[in-house]
Amino acid sequence: MKKLIEQIFRFGIVGVLAFIIDYGLMVFCTEVLGIYYLWSSLISFTVSVIFNYVMSVKWVFNVDNGKTQTQNLIFFVTFSIIGLGINQLIMWLGVDKIQISYLIVKLFATAVVMVFNYVTRKWYFEK
Fold it and tell me: Is the CB of residue 40 less than 8 Å from the CB of residue 10?
């Protein structure tokens, strides 16, 4: 139980840092560079996924699943793309359909994708 709590704590730290990268870059791209919010969200999400992958395999999960580094990366990227799809769908629904600020919708989208990421990564990396 202690190892699980420590792992969730580490995942949380990595998640917070990835969120700062994701959210900060999205706002910068949208507000400063004038990029459409969905493109900004795509760019920021991608950068944060790269950071998240490196930190997840180096610090969060005990990646001893008998798979090669290439297989692990393919899994991570595949499920990150699914997470990106979830993120973009929530962003589009919240902003374009419900008319909520993209800044607020991003917070909700991030929480949903964070749970998805933890469950899928824990299942894959430590099975």
Answer: no
Distance in angstroms (rounded) separating the CA atoms of residues 99 and 58: 39
Give dist(CA 28, CA 81) in Å, integer.
22
- Tokens representing 105 are 């919708």
The total number of structural domains that make up the chain:
1
pLDDT tens for the 127 residues of the chain, in order: 888 899 999 999 998 999 999 999 999 999 999 999 999 999 998 899 889 889 988 888 877 778 888 888 888 889 989 998 999 999 999 999 999 999 999 999 999 998 998 899 888 888 7
